[in-house]
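stuck on whats below:

***
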Amino acid sequence: MNLFKGYSPNEIKKAKIAYLCILPALLFLLLVRAVPIVSVFIKSFTNWDGLYKNDFVGLKNYKQLFSSGMFINLFKNNMYLLLSVPLQVIIGLVVAVLLYEHIPGWQVYRAIFYVPQIISLVILGYLFKTMFGLEGPINQMLTNIGLGNVACDWLLNRETALPVMVFCITWYSIGWQTIVILGGMASIDTSVFEASRLDGASFWDRTFKIVLPMIVSVISYCIVMAVIWTLTNMFALIYSMTGGGPGYETMTLDYFIYDKAFEGGNQLGYACAVSVILLLVVLIITAIELKISNKAEEKWG
């Protein structure tokens, strides 16, 4: 198969030079990404404890994960937290459009909305743990307005802890979504907006008939990255907010990997098996998202 079929000799030469330029980076990524992934896959078939044990056990780790019913519970928690993705993307889109329209004080708002992004997830987790604790300001506020019967220790049961976590993730991520979407909107030719204003297009017409169709790929990118981040980067937040408890009620797959590797008797082989399953979950969901986004780009792009 000729990759350069149909290209001129000059274009082929430039392409080869470009590939040679990125070759060191590709080799580096192969070393730091592919090698660990392959190593984890191999270790998932062993009883590796990080030190002495490293015996081949076949599919034992995978059978243990699925037969215990633990995977389903953890997967449900991951899916619940994914409810934050449409919330953060929609709110980020609304904020980005308003900032792009230069509402009064838009420079200040642009900085304010990004402030949560500079806060460590560990600090954020302890902050929300304090806010939603039994004696926290949320319960005090509810008591002061006559809703003391609603007050509770929000993080002590799954029914209230997971919604609090979704709220926390959404609040934390809005700034990032806003900045990325603003970047996409900045790439739109300003003459398009000037022409639409001269034609008398309203704010809603400009938003839904011009902006959204032209940034479909940006929104798709935001969704994909938000899903991957939510599936793989919840450890710090959960560790500081709930510790995965009570029991395993608020634990996700990425936190479970840490729990089994370092808190559950050094079951690193088992943790590797969970890591492989998490990787497959991320790849499947990402593939579905990309297929949907490609169709959306074909329709609106």
About this structure: Residues 9-43 form one domain. The radius of gyration is 24 Å.
